[in-house]
Specification:
single chain, alpha+beta, 12-stranded antiparallel β-sheet, two-stranded antiparallel ribbon, 6 helices
Length: 296
């Protein structure tokens, strides 16, 4: 079975967020284009609900769905114009065979209801964990649970072992970036200047088992109104085989809705398919950011 190198937003992360990969970008000459400068102005008086929903199609038309719910709260930081983001995993859901549901919930249980505070720059970029020692205790419990579940993971056992090895070796800076990966996409366009010219990107990355991958992407602004911008990304990812041969692996199609008032992405939808003739769907993913509902 083809390895699932699900590198959604790989090129975007590398070029906009300074991730672990490297990237080069070029913007074709598009002539006169509309221009948009997005702020980073997160709401400081309204908590946000943030949902990440991942669907894995199965043979015969069945699907497995895994969902995480976060509560996000922004506040001013101690520096000049910086912020603190408090992110709390408040719920997990799964619609899958019982064994997968039990593993999913058990693995994430150490992270539930544990507020993690991130220091952000005035542009919305991750600076550091506000309390790395406390977070390391929480993350250590998660890694221990992942290790325990890896013993039961069957064909995925090697991936679980590799993940445990990598996570156990993270320093504070790498730990902050790893945990922040869930929130990077919603802030990727904050404090950015965009126009109508497409941007071509090439990025380089290694997955959890150190497989090299290269992403070739094109980002394009496809729609704009007074409230939001809509951006599409198309990425073709090549992975390198054990004998050094590069082969097409994953095609990712991603659509971002960016709120012009805050600079935050309020909806990100993506589809990952095999880069083969049949283009078999591997995953659908949805990020949604909404004002938190107050229960009365």
């Amino acid at each position: 079975m083809t390895r699932r190198l699900i590198l959604v937003g790989l090129a975007l992360s590398a070029i906009l967020l300074g991730g672990s990969g490297s990237a080069a970008a070029s913007a074709p000459d598009g002539g006169d284009q509309a221009s948009y400068r997005l702020p980073f102005a997160p709401p400081l008086d309204t908590p946000l609900d943030y949902r990440i929903d991942i669907v894995h199609p199965q043979p015969g038309g069945a699907e497995m769905r895994f969902t995480r719910h976060f509560r996000l709260a922004f506040e001013p930081g101690d520096g000049d114009g910086d912020y603190v983001l408090t992110a709390t995993l408040v719920g997990v859901e799964a619609d899958a065979p019982a064994l997968f549901v039990e593993r999913y919930r058990a693995t994430l249980a150490p992270m539930l209801d544990q507020p993690i505070r991130y220091r952000l720059s005035s542009a919305g970029r991750i600076l550091a964990l506000a309390d790395p020692a406390a977070v390391r205790v929480i993350f250590g419990r998660f890694v221990a649970e992942l290790s325990n579940r890896g013993e039961e993971a069957g064909s995925d056992r090697a991936l679980a072992i590799a993940a445990v090895a990598r996570y156990s070796a993270l320093d504070d800076e790498a730990l902050a970036r790893t945990l922040f990966d869930d929130f990077d996409p919603i802030m990727a366009f904050a404090s950015r200047h965009l126009d109508g010219a497409p941007i071509d990107l090439v990025s380089h990355h290694r997955d959890v088992v150190e497989t090299r991958a290269t992403g070739h992407s094109r980002l394009a602004l496809i729609d704009a109104d007074a409230e939001a911008l809509r951006i599409e990304e198309q990425t073709l990812t090549h992975s390198e085989t054990s004998d050094g041969v590069s082969q097409p692996d994953i095609v990712s199609a991603i659509t971002y809705r960016i709120d012009r008032a805050t600079g935050l992405a309020t909806r990100i939808s993506s589809r990952d398919t095999l880069a083969t003739r049949d283009g078999r769907l591997l995953t659908r993913k949805l990020h949604e950011l909404t004002p938190r509902r107050v229960r009365r």
